[in-house]
Amino acid sequence: MDLRHLRYFVAVAEELHFGRAAERLNMAQPPLSQAIRQLEGDLGVELLHRTTRRVELTDAGRGYLTRARKIIGEVAEAAHEARRVAAGAVGHLAIGCVGSATYSLLPAISRGLSVELPGVDFSFRGEMLVPDQAAALRTGAIDLALLRPPIADLSLTVLPLRRDRLVVAVPADHPLAARREVRVTDLSDADLIVHSADRRSVMYDVVLGLLRDAGVEPRIRHEVGETSTLITLVAGGLGAAVVPEPVTALALDGVAFRPLARPAVHVDLALAHRTGRTEPHLARAVSVIRRIV
């Protein structure tokens, strides 16, 4: 079925006049009349009853007009939807965040994405460790990840976002809370709370490397999977923790945050997605997140 013939028929059926319909379609009348006859021949029914004075719809023509209008409307809707998809204005994206990004960035990112991409449906998973994020990206369980490099996975594209300074979280009544800043060696006598080694946390490796480079043998009291749990245990007086500075957004009574003494130590934050993903709505989301961060 030729969509042009449908449009021609609708114009004639609405005008009930070939001359006016031809003007509406910006075409000559003979080709229009020929197109309608071809349509009737293809269908095997008469759609229009013509006399020298007037044009009338047959019963078949009235039924066909209803369906033709619907088809043309649906084609127009499909074209509009295709343009929106091509522009990255619709779709669904799941975003996984490491703990520190969950508290410090997720509110701003969710607001920014909802404002700039209102037609895209977003879902968020917080408190994810990097190995879990990488696995979820590979399987498609999430589409984007705010994570802490390094990540050695050639199937993922990793885009640097920023560097975050490390700080020390201590119980508010801890002697170190009275310091303006804390040296790494000051942690030699402190019980420590760290992210889980069993779940291959990037922060576990960062913190242990920092301590050992300073000649401090770590005295680990607890290993946890979630940043919120880590800070809660600090608030409970169970130990100190070295965390990225954005974790200070998770303000809890009983916790004091102090910067590490210079030279300052930083950890990277990056945005990752599976290599080869080229959907316009994903590209637009990446652009929005990079601008916000």
Describe the fold and architecture.
The two termini are 51 Å apart. Strands 3, 4, 5, 6, 9, 10 and 11 form a seven-stranded mixed β-sheet that branches. This protein has two domains: 3-86, Winged helix-like DNA-binding domain superfamily/Winged helix DNA-binding domain (Arc Repressor Mutant, subunit A, Orthogonal Bundle); 91-292, D-Maltodextrin-Binding Protein, domain 2, CATH 3.40.190. It has ten helices and eleven strands. Strand 1 and strand 2 (55-57) form a beta hairpin. The chain is α/β, with parallel strands linked by helices and 293 residues long. It has helices spanning 3-15, 18-25, 29-43, 59-86, 99-104, 106-116, 130-139, 202-213, 227-235, 280-292, and strands at 48-50, 55-57, 91-97, 120-125, 144-147, 156-171, 192-195, 220-224, 241-244, 255-259, 266-274. The model has no long low-confidence stretch (mean pLDDT 89). Pfam families: HTH_1 (PF00126), LysR_substrate (PF03466). This is DNA-binding transcriptional LysR family regulator. GO terms for molecular function: DNA binding; DNA-binding transcription factor activity. Keywords: DNA-binding, Transcription, Transcription regulation.
